[in-house]
Amino acid sequence: MDLLDSIQSELQRLEQELIIQLKSRVPVAFEIGAHIMNSGGKRIRPQLAIIAARMGGYTGLDAIKLSGAIECIHTATLLHDDVVDTADTRRGRPSANTLWSNEMCVLGGDFILAKAFSALTSIKNLRILEIVSRATERLSEGELFQMANIGNLDLTEQDYLQVITDKTAVLMEAACRGGAIIGGLDRNKEEALAQFGFSLGIAFQMTDDVIDYRSDKETMGKTPCKDIQEGKLTLPLIAALKTADEPERARVVTMIREKQISDDNLEWVRDFVERRGGVQATLEAGRSYLELGAGHLKIFPDSEEKRALMRLAERILHRTY
């Protein structure tokens, strides 16, 4: 049994903590939160917080509270994302905004964010509160920057990195850093774990963006090539456009402007990002970030926890949904 299996008891405590954090005097607030919390998420961010705390020998309740708060923040963004993107499914199930109204889901997301910060204050560590607050602020900035660039075919790789840094990497970084603080690790080890989480977050999002082009609705639980239909340029498409000829570029422009993809265009754009090297370039970039993250862990001696982080990283890179 590896550590990812052995922390199941802590993950069960996390599920109980999430129920506590989602409790409300208003039943629908709990119902909306419970619906999306139970929609098949992998709990990657909570696992990072729990393992980081265990790197310092800590297995107490504060790590569970932190991991629950991190997961609540992530969940609130998913609720808001589904409203912004007018999504009808989330991980193969009806999205919350198809069961409740958009307005209810926005307010439900606000409620979950508020509960997350209530949980964070109960840890009674101002530094952790500051770290997670800043990560949440940057997460919002990333969402806004991406929305401001919908349909922008001049989006650069650097712009893309800014988006995924803020939308994904900083929250994983905060999970690792917060866990390290709770575990009582020194500043060098804290920074090493934080940089591992950051690199993992970049690789995670790059893999996710490849999956959007490679997978199918049955596997992903959502429509493939959703990003391009929403006018969002991610690295597979940005890299492919670098070597595209004029007819190919014109076809992409038309698809983004129309915001609908026929079956023919769906197959064409999948072939396009593969043939022009966009998928391969993104996978290679993700792998390089994972290698960078692994390098940050060299400061730690071999342990179950360290091996668990590396296995978690490999699972993320090779996932298909």
Brief summary:
The chain is built from 17 helices and 2 strands.
Task: Tell me what the structure shows.
GO terms for molecular function: metal ion binding; prenyltransferase activity. This is Polyprenyl synthetase family protein. Keywords: Magnesium, Metal-binding, Transferase. It is a single chain. α3 crosses α7, α4 (44-55) packs across α9 and α8 runs antiparallel to α9 (157-182). The protein has a two-stranded antiparallel ribbon. It has helices at 3-6, 8-22, 27-37, 44-55, 61-84, 96-99, 102-123, 126-148, 157-182, 187-214, 217-220, 226-229, 235-241, 246-258, 263-275, 278-296, 304-317, and strands at 89-90, 93-94. Helix content is 76%, strand content 1%. The protein has 321 residues and is mainly alpha-helical.
Widest β-sheet, arrangement of strands: 1-2
Query: Secondary-structure element order, as H and E?
Result: HHHHHEEHHHHHHHHHHHH
Mean pLDDT: 88
Count every beta strand, where a strand is a DSSP E run of 2 or more residues.
2
Query: Helical content, roughly?
Result: over 70%
Distance between the termini: 24 Å
In what range is the share of β-strand residues?
under 5%
The shape, in one word, is: globular
- CATH H-level name... which superfamily? Farnesyl Diphosphate Synthase
GO molecular function, one term: metal ion binding
GO biological process, one term: isoprenoid biosynthetic process
Cofactor: Mg(2+)
Family: Belongs to the FPP/GGPP synthase family.
